[in-house]
Design goal:
Radius of gyration: 26 Å
Order of helices and strands: HEEEEHHHEEEEEEEHHHH
Oligomer: single chain
Structural class: alpha+beta
Number of strands: 11
Number of helices: 8
């Protein structure tokens, strides 16, 4: 029994420690997919809070102070994302009750705007049209998930965001992940076919159906809301391993119980690796 707990402890140290080290975890982001022409449009998000993660409001700066600062070139280069300086100044001088963090830029080649690192939880979309020298601003929105996807419609100067998260794809991937991980554990069981009979295979099948559905649904929910599904997967695999080991030791025929320990560790390590790759 001591050897089993030693292996579990080593498993935790090897896989969890790197994930909880500073600033190595997943980061939330916002994706805006535009359905309209975005030529000569520059976009940013305004946040409700003056301080948001590493971002600080630019409200204290004026265009004159920025223009004549001896560090303005470096300051501008670090914050503008290649937006022309005169357009950056227009964003700086735009007044709203939400805060500007100095990050305006155009959409990418896929007509998509992404804020990858600590986007504001509550935000407005501010768009500058270089052709008309005018701004448009959306109403306030809130992130609905760890990674929030929106489709953006531009009509008569109005900016409308709608939830664009691909729930169907996520559900299909969830089902696929459950089926594959169960299949992996059943294939591993075939190695022990000399000792495992129909009774053991049925126990393995129904135990894995229960544990893998619960584990993978939980991983998906935690990933959706917090992005920490990988940690839940690791901790969950440890709990599943212990539960399966207890179940098999209590229910397998007497002559097969010794092989159940080897099987549980081998099957769960392989299903964990597959789960990581699929996730």
């Amino acid at each position: 029994m001591k050897k089993i707990w030693l292996i579990i402890s080593l498993f935790l140290v090897l896989f969890i420690t790197p994930l909880v080290s500073a600033d190595t975890g997943p980061k939330p982001y916002i994706s805006l997919q535009f359905s309209d022409d975005t030529t000569n449009l520059y976009i940013t998000l305004l946040g409700e809070d003056e301080y948001n993660g590493p971002w600080i409001s630019f409200e204290e700066y004026s265009s004159d102070e920025l223009s004549y600062s001896e560090n303005s070139a470096n300051f501008y280069e670090a914050t503008s994302y290649n937006t022309p300086f005169n357009i950056f100044i227009k964003f700086l001088n735009y007044k709203d009750d939400y805060y500007f963090y100095g990050l305006p830029y155009s959409v990418n080649e896929n007509n998509e705007y992404k804020w990858y690192y600590y986007p504001p939880d509550n935000f407005k979309v501010l768009i500058y049209n270089a052709d008309t020298d005018s701004f448009s601003i959306s109403q306030a929105y809130s992130c609905y998930a760890f990674s929030s996807y929106y489709e953006v419609s531009l009509s008569d100067g109005n900016i409308t965001l709608t939830n664009n998260y691909n729930y169907t794809k996520e559900i299909l991937l969830l089902i696929l992940r459950i089926v594959i991980t169960i299949a992996v554990e059943l294939v591993v069981a075939l190695i022990f076919i000399k000792w495992f009979k129909k009774r053991e295979f049925l126990i393995i099948l129904f135990t894995n159906i229960a544990t893998q559905i619960i584990l993978n649904v939980l991983v998906n929910l935690v990933t959706y809301f917090t992005g920490l599904g990988i940690i839940i997967l690791i901790l969950g695999e440890i709990i599943v391993l212990i539960l399966e080991l207890i179940t098999y030791l209590l229910t397998f025929r007497k002559g097969t119980k010794g092989f159940s320990v080897t099987y549980v560790f081998l099957a769960n390590i392989l299903s964990f690796i597959v789960g990581i790759l699929l996730l």
